[in-house]
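Figure 3 (text version): structure tokens given as input.
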């Protein structure tokens, strides 16, 4: 059974930083390209960042490029997202999954990020 557990979210002021973590189990994490996605209230889930197998290659949405960094620790089956210079428009629930997510993908509960003064 695929399990994805996201953590590290919280309330932060504009300009602040957070580091998200995603612990995965139930599939071959080290052999999977992985990504972070987010869903803001009233909006569809959108792509944020992706990283290839063995950390080969990264890709970012234009809205986060230069501010967010995706990384992975395959020995720990863990995916990370370092978020700097946060903006109110980054407020959303953040999810991790394989990239691209498979059809009928299982999703974790996500972690809430709120950027507000």
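Below: residues designed for each position.
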């Amino acid at each position: 059974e695929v399990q994805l557990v996201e953590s590290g979210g919280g309330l932060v002021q504009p300009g602040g930083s957070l580091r998200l973590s995603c612990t995965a189990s139930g599939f071959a994490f080290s052999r999977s390209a992985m990504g972070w996605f987010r869903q803001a209230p009233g909006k569809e889930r959108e792509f944020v960042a992706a990283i290839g197998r063995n950390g080969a290659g990264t890709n970012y949405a234009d809205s986060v490029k230069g501010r967010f960094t995706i990384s992975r620790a395959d020995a720990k089956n863990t995916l990370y997202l370092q978020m700097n210079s946060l903006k109110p428009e980054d407020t959303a629930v953040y999810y991790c999954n394989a990239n691209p997510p498979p059809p009928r993908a299982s999703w974790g509960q996500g972690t809430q990020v709120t950027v507000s003064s």
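The chain has a mean pLDDT of 96.
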